[in-house]
Write a structure and sequence with these properties.
5 helices, globular, 2 domains, 10-stranded antiparallel β-sheet, Glucose Permease (Domain IIA)
Length: about 240
């Protein structure tokens, strides 16, 4: 009888253990721990890169994906090679720079990447919703990778800048109904917790165009969660948005 008793107790713990943390408080494990990702239905290269906090361009390079950035369900993407891929790209220019020190000063103006960066940075941003900021960007304490904007259910969410929709769906935990827009090779923006999505993947949108309605999907209250990522890294949107 004793073994049966212990089995019952164990099964009770298994069934009535503490519930999992809300999706809003979860963050995906670092890509260094997860070595691969199997593409699921509805996922895009951009949504996968977003989930792991990676630059979509680096993820594409590591997996031999061309600039169409096309992937398909069941495809296995390598995440473990991201670090080595990045390291090799840093080392190669350093060797070139050392060689250039012995060359005549006339051959030194090789600053093309910097010029491209400045050009890409010229995205004209506007506010994606009318409400006040409920919670600002934070990289410490209560981490917030963007800003939370107050609003009423059904109010308009507009594109913060012109670009192309690269993801529209609800496949990312904690984001609810989500839209990701690519504005340049450098910048992406995201609009989360919507009630309704009014655009689909592949749509080209203009700044100020209505793309969704404010909701509470994947959240505990009605709000718009807005993020800007630069080369895959979250940045403070309020540093780019105009002052009100």
């Amino acid at each position: 009888m004793l073994p049966v008793f212990f089995l019952c107790v164990l099964s009770l713990f298994a069934c009535s253990g503490t519930p999992p943390a809300p999706v809003d408080s979860r963050s995906p494990p670092p890509s260094s721990k997860i070595k691969t990702h199997v593409v699921g239905k509805g996922e895009t290269l951009f949504s996968i890169a977003w989930a792991y906090g990676l630059d979509y361009k680096a993820l594409a390079r590591a997996n031999g994906i061309d600039q169409s950035y096309t992937i398909h369900p069941g495809q296995v993407l390598k995440l473990s090679e991201m670090a080595t891929s990045t390291t090799s790209k840093i080392i190669a220019p350093a060797k070139v720079a050392v060689q250039q020190k012995t060359v005549t000063p006339a051959k030194l103006p090789a600053v093309k990447p910097v010029i491209k960066k400045i050009s890409d940075s010229k995205v004209i941003w506007s506010w994606p919703a009318l409400g006040k900021v409920m919670q600002g960007f934070s990289e410490s304490g209560t981490v917030n990778k963007g800003i939370d904007i107050a609003g009423k259910l059904g109010e308009a969410v507009v594109a913060s800048a012109s670009g192309k929709v690269v993801y529209a769906g609800s496949g990312l935990l904690g984001y609810g109904q989500l839209i990701i827009i690519k504005h340049s090779d450098e910048f992406l923006s995201a609009y989360a917790h919507n009630r309704v999505l009014l655009v689909k993947e592949g749509d080209v949108v203009k700044a100020g165009q209505k793309i969704a309605e404010i909701g509470a999907s994947g959240a505990d209250k009605v709000k718009l969660h807005f993020e800007i990522r630069r080369d895959g890294k979250p940045v403070d949107p309020e540093e780019f948005l105009p002052r009100r």
